[in-house]
Write a structure and sequence with these properties.
The longest helix is centred in the middle third of the chain and has 12 residues. This protein is elongated. The chain starts with 8 loop residues before the first helix and ends in a 20-residue tail after the last helix. Helix content is about 50%, strand content about 0%. Helix 3 crosses helix 4. The mean pLDDT is about 85.
C-alpha cells in the first residue's frame, strides 16, 4: 500500500509466477486469500513464508521534507 509500505517487488514477481495459469492461480488463492481468516493471519502467513526481516524492510523509513510557504493564507484566495 503506497504511503504505508514500500513496494514488495519480489512478492509481485512471486505472485505473477504463481498465477500464470488457472491451476496455479487457484493454489495461490487458496493459500493467500481463502487460506487466511483476516489481516493478522495474512501477516503471520507472510512472515512464516518469507521471514520477519523481509516484512520489516517493507515498512517505510521517515522522509521529512521542508515546510511549504504558499505566500498567503487560504482565506485571502476567496
Amino acid at each position: 500500500m503506497y504511503g504505508f509500505y514500500d513496494d514488495d517487488l519480489a512478492y509481485r514477481v512471486y505472485y505473477e509466477q504463481s498465477t500464470y495459469d488457472d491451476e496455479k492461480a487457484k493454489a495461490w488463492l487458496d493459500e493467500w486469500v481463502f487460506g487466511v481468516k483476516n489481516r493478522q493471519e495474512y501477516i503471520e502467513h507472510y512472515i512464516r513464508r518469507f521471514g520477519y526481516a523481509k516484512l520489516a524492510r517493507l515498512k517505510p523509513k521517515p522522509f521529512y521534507s521542508a515546510s511549504v510557504n504558499y505566500g498567503r493564507p487560504l482565506a485571502e484566495v476567496y
